[in-house]
Amino acid sequence: xxxxxxxxxxxxxxxxxxxTQEEIAQKLGVAPSTxxxxxxxxxxxxxxxxxxxxxxxxxxxxxxxxxxxxxxxQKIN
Length: 77
Known about the structure:
By secondary structure, the protein is mainly α. The protein has one domain: 434 Repressor (Amino-terminal Domain) (Orthogonal Bundle), CATH 1.10.260. Helix content is 75%, strand content 0%. It is built from six helices and no strands. The chain has helices at 2-17, 21-28, 32-40, 47-57, 61-66, 69-76. Helix 1 (2-17) runs parallel beside helix 6 and helix 2 (21-28) packs across helix 3.
């Protein structure tokens, strides 16, 4: 279930923050193509990268994986 939530939310979270896939990939230290696979759910994300994503979005790891969509969007705006 967490993979589905993360996949569905990464693009939305990135857009709310006004970041491109390339910018997020650079912050994570991965290729843009790798980050794109995270967004589509075609590649799983390691725990260390998940923690970095949470930090980029200003969320806790729990919020990144399990929070309700509207609560997370309000927090990062």
